[in-house]
Amino acid sequence: MAQLDLGSGGLTPSPHRVTLRARLDGTRPDRAVHPDRNQVKDGPRRNEAVDARRTGRPLENDEKPEKRMTTSTSKIVLVTGASSGIGAATARALAGAGHHVVLGARRVDRLAEVVDDIKAAGGSAEYSELDVTSLDSMKTFVSTAHERHGRIDVLVNNAGVMPLSPLIMERTDDWDQMIDVNVRGVLHGIAAALPLMKAQGSGHFINIASTLGHEVVPTAAVYSATKYAVRAISEGVRKENSDIRVSIVSPSFVESELIQGGDPGTMAWVQGLADKLALPTTAVSDAIVYAVNQPDHVDVNELVIRSVLDAAA
Ligand SMILES: NC(=O)c1ccc[n+]([C@@H]2O[C@H](COP(=O)([O-])OP(=O)(O)OC[C@H]3O[C@@H](n4cnc5c(N)ncnc54)[C@H](OP(=O)(O)O)[C@@H]3O)[C@@H](O)[C@H]2O)c1
C-alpha cells in the first residue's frame, strides 16, 4: 500500500506521495504538490506524529501539536460539506497532499465512505457529524478536532445549498435555507475557529463562494446574495486579522449534487447549463490545495474558476 512519505522532510519529491495523490483524485501522477512549496521545519517528527495518529500510538512530548512549528507539510484541515461534490474532492486532495483532514456533514455514511477511501490510499482522515446551521454543532466539530490535534490550521467553509427560483415565486423556505447554510454556516465556522486560530497565532479560512458572488442572474438573486455575503465576510476577516489567511474560492459550474430542490423548471434549466459547462471537482480541489500549500506569508485572496466554455454561454 502506498504510504505518505514526509520523512524526507518533503524536500524531495516522493514517488509514493505522487502515486497516493493520483490514487485519491484520479489525476495523473505527475501533478503532486511541488516540494519547494513546503518548507518543512520539523519533518521527521511530524511524520512520526502522522503515523501515531493512524495507529493510535500515544504522542511523544515533542510530537505533540503544540510543540510543533506552524509551517509544515502536514496541516490539520477541517472541511465542511465533505460528504459529496467539492467538499469530498477537497478532502481527498488535501489528504493526498499529506494533510490530516477532518470531514464534516450531516450524511455520516457518506463521510465514512470518503474517509475509508482516503485511508485505503494511505492518507490520514477522520469525520464527525456536522450541521453548519447550528452554532453548537459547529463549535463541537471544531473544538473536538482542536482537542484531539492541539491546533486547527485550516477550515474550509464549503457546505452550501442552491435551490433556485424567481423571486416572484416567494419560495421563502428556500431563501431561509440558503441564508442558514451558505451565510450562517460560514459565520458559525468563523465563530468556532477564529478564537482558536488567534490563540495559536495563525490559521487559514477557505470560504467557497461562487461566480454568482460576482454577478446576479435571474432566479439566483438569493443564492447570489449569500455568495456576495461570503465574499464580504471573508474580506472582513482578512482585513481584521493580519495573522490569519483568508482565501475565497469562486467556481462556476462544477460536477456535484448541488442541483436539487428549488423550482423544478428553473432547476431543469440550470441542469442543462451544468451539463454543458460543469468542470470536474478536481478543478476546485486542486486550487484549494494550492492555496493551503503556499508559504505562511502568502495569502491567496481569491480564485475564480470557470470552464473556458463559460465565455460563450
Ligand atoms: N457545484 C457548483 O456548480 C458550484 C458552483 C459554485 C459554488 N459552489 C459551492 O460549492 C460548495 C459545495 O457544493 P457542491 O457543488 O459540492 O454541492 P454538493 O455536492 O451538494 O455538496 C454540498 C455539501 O454541503 C453539505 N451541506 C448542506 N447542508 C448542510 C448543513 N446544514 N450542514 C452541513 N453540511 C451541509 C452537504 O452535506 P450533507 O447533505 O451530508 O449535510 C454536501 O456535502 C457550496 O458552497 C456551493 O454553493 C458550487
UniProtKB/TrEMBL annotation:
<dbReference type="InterPro" id="IPR036291">
    <property type="entry name" value="NAD(P)-bd_dom_sf"/>
</dbReference>
<feature type="region of interest" description="Disordered">
    <location>
        <begin position="23"/>
        <end position="71"/>
    </location>
</feature>
<dbReference type="InterPro" id="IPR057326">
    <property type="entry name" value="KR_dom"/>
</dbReference>
<dbReference type="InterPro" id="IPR020904">
    <property type="entry name" value="Sc_DH/Rdtase_CS"/>
</dbReference>
<dbReference type="Pfam" id="PF00106">
    <property type="entry name" value="adh_short"/>
</dbReference>
<feature type="compositionally biased region" description="Basic and acidic residues">
    <location>
        <begin position="23"/>
        <end position="69"/>
    </location>
</feature>
<dbReference type="InterPro" id="IPR002347">
    <property type="entry name" value="SDR_fam"/>
</dbReference>
<keyword id="KW-0560">Oxidoreductase</keyword>
<protein>
    <submittedName>
        <fullName>SDR family oxidoreductase</fullName>
    </submittedName>
</protein>
<feature type="domain" description="Ketoreductase">
    <location>
        <begin position="75"/>
        <end position="257"/>
    </location>
</feature>
<comment type="similarity">
    <text>Belongs to the short-chain dehydrogenases/reductases (SDR) family.</text>
</comment>
